[in-house]
């Protein structure tokens, strides 16, 4: 049960996180400023993944396809048709929604390991499609969106998303919106049903819930969130390539969520940030950085089995959402 | 009186095993009806067919005049059939409050306001005597309290038919007495179908009793009828009547 007191605390915590990220825009040195903008966009993928994996308990190994749907939905329309940014971004969202609905209808007929395999295979199909249509996508080389396509016009005035501060603010805006949406969903009636499905689907059915419909909604919400990150990535960083549809981008969000804490609202961000810096710092010292990353992950699993925020919630701060 | 529930020639086969073998059963509205029988008699399978957890091999199930034989379980729950599990299956990692909020939030038709939800949840917890433990994780409650929480979840569904599958199993004598009072209270506005091994509970609560054996109905009647039935004694106690 969540009383009024902890509701206020939860809300303040999330606003504070957004406020700190806003303030960091003016403080951070250039390099870290760029990293944080990228991490914010990538953690949106993790937040989308967390909706499905953390809350509904469905382990997908194919979320790269939803990220790629947004990436290509926005990137191809902006590059080939010269669509303006809002339209291109919307195209990314629609691509993600359509794809996730179709995948959900098919993949949710399975559970457990079969669900993992089915989502992984569909993602692999999507990855190969980016090569099949390389006339449009240029496969691995990818497309580079020029500066002129990455301007957001408001009347005569425009925001140049290639400018670091603007880009940072756009990433923060997306991050904040998605963070608050996930917070709202997990505290809603639907969020409670998702957790119930994760804990015991059979029992949830016997409480009168159409668990298939609830899971389908979760897949689509998760897919659209990941697609929003993909669309934003294309427009903010100007590159659209096949590598983003590869299996690596299905595994990374899982890793980020596990690290930060599954079924915590802020865990995906914490996990993505942590992972990014562990790789970044260790790779500047040695070419065997993956070895150190591996050791770091093992230590984390040993001492923080439920992820960083998940373990903190379990041991110290019970009200953490 | 029109029956609330009727089954006609209901069957469920698992391979060669006839778990439920041609059951014609009638449940009247407002009654407390107990199903008894030796282990493996098909009692749990029978109520699982009624609530939709298991689909029948053949036969029909009529609930309140509608044929519900092909309805999935969640739709039957929405029609008013609630089932509380034999093996306690509360959501162990959620608070008692959230366990009851889950069924409650679905039955609220008026805007799902938080205040309404809260009032409804606390009411169900109070009726089962769990109000003081609303914030406890369900998994940390004592066994008896988990059984009561199961009932609170059933109540939150506002059922017309509440199926209790061995509700007093593992409860202490004191808890059983309290439980019987609760079932009588529930029966004032719902029909109760009860599977129970404890004869004291059955004889004390039931208006009518159905005895099952080997997937079939062996006898049916008031507690007094059943107590006097020779065939029941043979099947149930494994002894010849004296």
From TrEMBL, chain A:
Subcellular location: Cell membrane
Keyword Metal-binding in annotation: no
Keywords for the protein's UniProt record, in alphabetical order: Cell membrane, Membrane, Transmembrane, Transmembrane helix
InterPro entries, sorted: ABC_transp_permease (IPR001851), LivM-like (IPR043428)
Top-rank lineage group of the source organism: Bacteria
GO cellular component: plasma membrane
Keyword Kinase (UniProt): no
One GO MF term attached to the UniProt entry: branched-chain amino acid transmembrane transporter activity
Parts of the chain that traverse the membrane: 6-28, 35-55, 88-107, 113-133, 168-186, 216-240, 252-279, 285-305
Chief place where the protein resides: membrane
UniProt topology in membrane: Multi-pass membrane protein
Stated name of the protein: Branched-chain amino acid ABC transporter permease
Species this protein is from: Mesorhizobium zhangyense
TrEMBL record, chain B:
UniProt-listed CDD domains: ABC_Mj1267_LivG_branched
Top-level taxon in the UniProt lineage: Bacteria
Pfam families, per database record: ABC_tran, BCA_ABC_TP_C
Keywords: ATP-binding, Nucleotide-binding, Transport
Protein name (database record): ABC transporter ATP-binding protein
SUPFAM superfamilies in alphabetical order: P-loop containing nucleoside triphosphate hydrolases
InterPro entries reported in the protein's UniProt record: AAA+_ATPase, ABC_AA/LPS_Transport, ABC_transporter-like_ATP-bd, BCA_ABC_TP_C, P-loop_NTPase
Organism: Mesorhizobium zhangyense
Residue ranges occupied by any ABC transporter domain in the UniProt entry: 5-239
GO cellular component: plasma membrane
Keyword Manganese: no
Cited SMART domains: AAA (SM00382)
GO MF annotation: an example: ATP hydrolysis activity
UniProt keyword annotation of rRNA processing present: no
């Amino acid at each position: 049960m969540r009383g009024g007191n902890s509701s206020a605390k939860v809300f303040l915590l999330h606003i504070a996180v957004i406020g700190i990220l806003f303030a960091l825009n003016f403080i951070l040195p250039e390099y870290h400023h760029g990293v944080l903008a990228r991490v914010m966009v990538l953690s949106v993928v993790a937040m989308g993944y967390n909706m499905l994996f953390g809350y509904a308990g469905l382990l997908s190994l194919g979320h790269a396809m939803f990220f790629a749907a947004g990436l290509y939905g926005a990137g191809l329309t902006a590059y080939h048709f010269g669509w303006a940014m809002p339209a291109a971004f919307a195209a990314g969202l629609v691509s993600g929604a359509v794809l996730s609905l179709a995948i959900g209808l098919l993949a949710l007929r399975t559970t457990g390991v079969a669900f993992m395999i089915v989502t992984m295979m569909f993602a692999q199909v999507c990855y190969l499609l980016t090569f099949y249509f390389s006339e449009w996508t240029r496969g691995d080389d990818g497309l580079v969106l020029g500066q002129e396509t990455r301007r957001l016009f408001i009347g005569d005035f425009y925001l140049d998303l290639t400018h670091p501060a603007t880009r940072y603010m756009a990433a923060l805006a997306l991050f904040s919106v998605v963070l608050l949406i996930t917070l709202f969903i997990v505290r809603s009636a639907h969020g409670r049903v998702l957790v119930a499905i994760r804990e015991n689907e059979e029992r949830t059915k016997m409480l009168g819930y159409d668990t298939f419909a609830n899971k389908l909604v979760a897949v689509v919400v998760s897919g659209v969130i990941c697609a929003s990150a993909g669309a934003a990535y294309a427009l903010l960083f100007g590159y659209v390539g096949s590598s983003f549809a590869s299996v690596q981008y299905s595994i990374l969000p899982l890793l980020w969520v596990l690290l930060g804490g599954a079924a915590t609202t802020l865990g995906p961000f914490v996990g993505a940030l942590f992972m990014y810096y562990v790789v970044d710092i260790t790779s500047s010292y040695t070419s065997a950085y993956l070895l150190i990353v591996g050791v770091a992950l093992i230590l984390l699993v040993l001492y923080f089995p439920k992820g960083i925020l998940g373990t903190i919630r379990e041991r110290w701060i019970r009200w953490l959402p | 009186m029109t029956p609330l529930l009727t089954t006609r020639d209901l069957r469920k086969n698992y391979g060669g095993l006839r778990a439920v073998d041609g059951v014609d059963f009638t449940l009247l509205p407002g009654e407390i009806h107990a199903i008894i029988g030796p282990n493996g008699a098909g009692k749990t399978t029978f109520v699982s067919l009624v609530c939709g957890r298991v689909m029948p091999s053949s036969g029909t199930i009529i609930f309140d005049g509608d044929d519900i034989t092909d309805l999935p379980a969640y739709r039957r729950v929405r029609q008013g059939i609630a089932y509380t599990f034999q093996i306690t299956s509360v959501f162990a990692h959620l608070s008692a409050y959230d366990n009851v909020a889950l069924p409650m939030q679905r039955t609220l038709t008026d805007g799902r306001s938080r205040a309404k939800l809260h009032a409804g949840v606390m009411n169900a917890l109070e009726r089962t005597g769990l109000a003081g433990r609303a914030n406890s994780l369900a998994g940390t409650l004592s066994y008896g309290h988990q059984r009561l929480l199961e009932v609170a979840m059933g109540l939150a569904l506002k059922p017309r038919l509440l199926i209790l599958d061995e509700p007093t199993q593992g409860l202490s004598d004191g808890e059983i007495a309290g439980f019987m009072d609760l079932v009588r209270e529930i029966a004032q506005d719902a029909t109760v179908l009860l599977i129970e091994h404890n004869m004291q509970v059955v004889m004390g609560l039931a208006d009518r009793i159905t005895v099952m054996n080997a997937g079939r109905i062996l006898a049916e009647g008031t507690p007094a009828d059943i107590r006097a039935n020779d065939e029941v004694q043979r099947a149930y106690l494994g002894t010849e009547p004296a």
